[in-house]
Design brief:
The chain has 2 domains: 3-80, no CATH class; 86-143, Homeodomain-like (Arc Repressor Mutant, subunit A), CATH 1.10.10.60. It is mainly alpha-helical. The chain contains 10 helices and no strands. The mean pLDDT is 91.
């Protein structure tokens, strides 16, 4: 990875790459295992960062020395979905958990944690994938009968 590429990385990408580099230096068995299985490493990073919208996977693949196409094929073979689909699921799951929290954080806080510049972008994402606006989903999730409750 060139110095020029490092300057254009988002903070979350820089953090993820630093984590990969730390794992390389670690004597931790689990970290070593992840480095040997790039698809599993990417899945772990997606989960660690809740599918963060600014976590582009290409720079991380480059840090691992793996071609993106090969990594994507390996990921699909291993998990039955693309890395983008997994990112979307992780982001949606994190959003729902936050919306069920008591006290519920402000929508702007949830959007910011996921890397959105404003609430509207995150709310569009949420509505597209959950079928309801975040506020509407949260109300209905909390109002359902206990055996159907989503929270």
């Amino acid at each position: 990875m060139t110095a020029r590429m490092i300057n254009v990385l988002s903070p979350v990408e820089k953090e993820a790459i630093a984590k990969v580099r730390a794992w390389r230096l670690s004597s931790d068995h689990e970290a070593r295992r992840l480095l040997q299985a790039p698809a599993h490493l990417m899945r772990s990073l997606i989960r660690i960062y809740y599918g963060h919208v600014k976590l582009r996977l290409g720079p991380i693949a480059a840090e691992l020395g793996v071609e993106m196409r090969s990594l994507e094929r390996s990921f699909v073979d291993e998990f039955g979905k693309t890395m983008l689909e997994h990112q979307t699921e992780a982001r949606l799951e994190f959003s729902k958990i936050q919306l069920c929290s008591q006290p519920r954080p402000k929508l702007s806080v949830i959007a910011n944690l996921l890397g959105y510049e404003d609430v509207r972008g995150w709310a569009r994402f949420f509505k597209q994938h959950a079928g309801k606006s975040p506020s509407s989903w949260s109300r209905s999730a909390l109002d359902d009968t206990p055996h159907e409750r989503l929270c």
